[in-house]
Each structure stands twice: as structure tokens, then as C-alpha cells.
Amino acid sequence: MARRSKLSEQEHTELLQAIKADFDARLARLAADPAEWVTLLETVACFGARYTLNNQFLLMMQAEQRQMTPTFFLPYGNKDATSGWKKHGRQVRRGETAFHVWAPIRRRPGEDEAARREAAGRPVVREESGRPAVQVVGFVLSPTFDLSQTDGEPFEVPSVQRARRVQAAGGRTPQLLDGEDPTGVYDDVVTLITDAGYAFDLAAPGSRYLGQANGVTVTGHGGGMRQVLVRADLSPAQRVKTTMHELAHIRCDHVDRVGENRHRGRAETEAESVAYLCCRALGLDTQTYSDAYVLGWAGGDLDLVGQCAQTVLRVARTILGDLTPAGEPADRNVTGDPAAVVEGDPA
User: Fold this and answer.
1) For the whole model, what pTM was predicted?
2) How many Cα atoms occupy the beta-carbon half-sphere of 221 within 13 Å?
3) How far is CA 144 from the centre of its chain?
4) Which among 76, 176, 314, 347 has most CB atoms closer than 10 A?
5) Up-side HSE of residue 254: CA atoms within 13 Å toward CB?
6) How large is the angle between the packed helices 9-32 and 302-323, nearest 10 degrees?
7) pLDDT tens digit string along 302-311?
8) Which domain of life does the protein's organism represent (predicted)?
């Protein structure tokens, strides 16, 4: 029996309908129940925030239909065994049915197509000469397989946590680090903050700007001040979590949008969710924050909840990418943001 990776036209149509219905239902549950939000973060952390919200929901839907807990996804691989599971010496077993994810379609649009896209308000990347560049022009359902569907050479799931431990040990896989913070990312997170143009300092509780907060990001105050302050008396674990929270505020673009009509509850939910997700993916199990932080500001508005979820996954994915040593395998099928497809516009 052959591996099943292609869908018939009817199966494709039925899957598109199921994806849209499932996406709307999951979004509604997120808006209605803060516990659902925390469950999403837990699930996303297992995969190191590798997927967009749409692909995360899509994989969750398919896994639930099969009553299984997925581990790690890669495509089957090309004939030259330079990609996917073939690259790692593993074969997808015969009879296994592929999962599907939204994969970007990259090509150079013609001038007529580029003009139509621009007239419709869609961005078109152009080279210096004015010629349309190779770019994402749409999304297509593409097959991928879970580790549990393969046989072959031993394969250890390349989590962000494992990758950093191997790097810290000079290529050897060590035991869990001693101390209250097992991640070893504190200095790197501080570097990401300073690379963004912010000074970073530890400060005594009650000091100017910090007050009784664990951390604060300060801008303005005459002279273009940009500074992150974190309490100096925090435990190592709390210090890295708080520092990650302030980095999340910066990466979510909260600090430069103070004057906009932006609810503080949303900003705190996004920053705390990013910090929780990243720390969990790195091996630091931080305490789940109060339900008061989560989604009360949204008032059940599905669009706002969806925007928040998209932001959290996007920012967490970029932070974890910056903290992951180079050379780790990735599923190239899951890049991009196919929101237009989920909304019924395949572009």
C-alpha cells in the first residue's frame, strides 16, 4: 500500500471546508475561555512556535481526528535525500497518510499579475530595476509527516531547549543545568534587547521608573531614553522570565505605539504569553499567569483574539529563532502566514 500524500479534488474541497469551520470554532473557544488560551500556549511551546496560527490549528485538527499526539513534522524528502525525512535517514512507512499544512508558493509574477495584485492593495516586491521579484504569491496545502510515521536512523527531536544545551556543552548532550534557571539564555536575551537599541540595567525595587514592578521598558522622558529595567533581587528563573517579557513588549511593538488606542490588557496578554511560551520551549516551566491577564479586554471579539494569537506566535517564533543555534532541521512547508487562504481567498 502506497503512502498517501495527494488529495483527490473532493478530499481537497472537503478539507478546505473543515479547515475553515475548525479555525472559526477554535478561535471562538479561545475568546470564550482563558483556559483554552493557556492550552494553546502549552501546545505551541512543544513545537517551539515553529508554525503560524493557521498551521498550528490545522495540525491540531488533524492530530485530534487521528487521536494521536504529534511529535515533529518534516516533509517526505526529495529524490536526492537532501531534505525532509530522507535527509535524516528515515523513510515514511507505506500506508501512512500525510498531514497537510499551508505552504507558500514562491515565484516571479508577470507584470499583468503584479499590476492586478497592486490594484487590489496586495504588496508586490520589486527589484531595483522595477521587475517583480520572486515572492510569495499564494499558499497551497502540502504534505508533511510526523516522526511516529517514519522508520530509520535514530532521530532526536531538535527542540530549542536541546539545541542550546548541546551548544553550551560544546556538542555533547549534558544533564539538566543546575540552579533555578535551566535555560542559559539570560545573557542572550539581554543582547537581543540591547541590539534593539535599548539600554539594559538591573535596578533596586522601588527605584525610579521601576517602582514595585518586576520589570519595565521606558521610552521618551526627554532625550529619547530607551531603557529596560529589571529588579536586581529576582531569582535567576524569574529574572530570565521577566527579561523575556520586556523583550516581548519590544518585539510586539508595544512601546512605540503608546499613543494609539491600544488596550493595556492586550499588550500585557501578548507579552506575557510570548514570555511564557518561549520560556516553556526553552525548558523553564514558569507559573501560569492569572486569568485576569487573559482575553478579558477582547470582549469576545474573534478578530481581536485572532490578531493577538497571530502576534504571539509570530513574535515567539522569531525570538526562539534568534535563540536557536544554526543548523537545526526545519520544516520548510510551514513558513508564511496563509491567513488569506483560511478566509477563502487562495490568491
Assistant:
1) 0.70
2) 8
3) 18
4) 76
5) 26
6) 100
7) 888 888 899 9
8) Bacteria
